[in-house]
């Protein structure tokens, strides 16, 4: 647990009492300052694990530590300052502008009915520029394409300034150029010492950016190690139930299905 931004021990979870377990005896350390990929097929429990780390779900058994402290010992505000989220899909009920939406990331730092300051607005504009969507600042969020909305959600997470950033399929809905932009932002956050955890079913996305990979299948962890150690042909074949081959491109593994 020493040096872990997130530490889970014996975590079990089911969505209904007596129902099937989605996660089974999960024990895991996420190294501080790492970019960690939760990798596995659909239905393997990746998103559920993310929600447990964030505090949106409570385990049926086991413990979760955030920055060395039991997750339940944080207030909601304290936890929001420690852990941020980029969800895959998030409905926006109100006709907020992109700038207003991004400013919601400052909520953990504001008092009741307190309005964002000039400094908060400056951070929001900086995040929009970093993501490359400054031109969308005054567009209504419901009018955005799926990819544009995903970029706005990432900008909101940047404004939150959490040391741990969780992301559910961060490049979903994005074209090639915007995928590269998001990966560059994630690499930059990693260089700043932030801890990033993201889910994906694509081993090549994990290989492209992660330095730590967790392989999940049917709610169990099959492997958790440095990328080159985790992404072996044998481990990925066991994870996905299909034969794969591994090639090396620019020092990173490239997964090829047979």
> Approximately how much helix is present in the residues?
25-40%
- Percent range for β-strand residues: 25-35%
| Global morphology | globular
The total strand number stands at 12
Provide the succession of SSEs: EEEHEEHEHHHEHEHEEHHEE
Question: How would you describe this structure to a colleague?
Answer:
There is one protein chain. This protein has helices at 46-54, 76-82, 98-103, 118-131, 146-160, 176-191, 203-209, 227-230, 233-240; strands spanning 4-14, 21-31, 35-39, 61-66, 69-70, 83-86, 164-168, 195-200, 212-217, 220-226, 244-249, 252-257. Helices cover 33% and strands 29% of the residues. The termini are far apart. The strands form three sheets. Strands 6-7-8-3-9-10 form a six-stranded mixed beta sheet, with helices on both faces. It has one domain (4-257): P-loop containing nucleotide triphosphate hydrolases (Rossmann fold), CATH 3.40.50. Helix 4 crosses helix 5. It is built from nine helices and twelve strands. The longest helix has 16 residues, at 176-191. The mean pLDDT is 90. The protein has 258 residues and is α/β, with parallel strands linked by helices.
């Amino acid at each position: 647990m020493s040096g872990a931004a997130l530490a889970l021990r014996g975590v079990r979870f089911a969505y209904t009492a007596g129902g099937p377990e989605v996660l089974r005896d999960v024990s895991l350390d996420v190294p501080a300052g790492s970019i960690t990929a939760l990798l596995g097929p659909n239905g393997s429990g990746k998103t559920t694990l993310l929600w447990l780390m964030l505090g949106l779900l409570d385990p049926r058994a086991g413990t979760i530590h955030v920055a060395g402290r039991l997750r339940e010992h944080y207030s909601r505000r304290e936890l929001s300052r420690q852990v941020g989220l980029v969800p895959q899909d998030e409905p926006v009920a109100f006709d907020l502008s992109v700038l207003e939406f991004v400013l919601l990331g400052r909520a953990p730092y504001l008092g009741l009915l307190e309005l964002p300051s000039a400094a908060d607005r400056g951070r929001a504009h900086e995040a929009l520029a970093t993501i490359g969507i400054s031109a969308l600042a005054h567009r209504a969020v419901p009018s955005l394409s799926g990819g544009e909305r995903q970029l706005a959600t990432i900008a909101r997470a940047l404004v939150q300034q959490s040391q741990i950033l969780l992301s559910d399929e961060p490049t979903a809905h994005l074209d090639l150029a915007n995928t590269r932009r998001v990966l560059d932002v994630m690499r930059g956050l990693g260089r700043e010492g932030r801890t990033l955890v993201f889910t994906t079913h694509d081993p090549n996305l994990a290989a492209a950016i992660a330095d730590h990979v967790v392989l999940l299948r049917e709610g169990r962890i099959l492997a958790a190690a440095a990328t080159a150690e985790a992404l072996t042909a044998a481990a990925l074949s066991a994870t996905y139930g299909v034969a794969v081959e591994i090639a090396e491109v620019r020092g990173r593994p490239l997964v090829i299905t047979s």
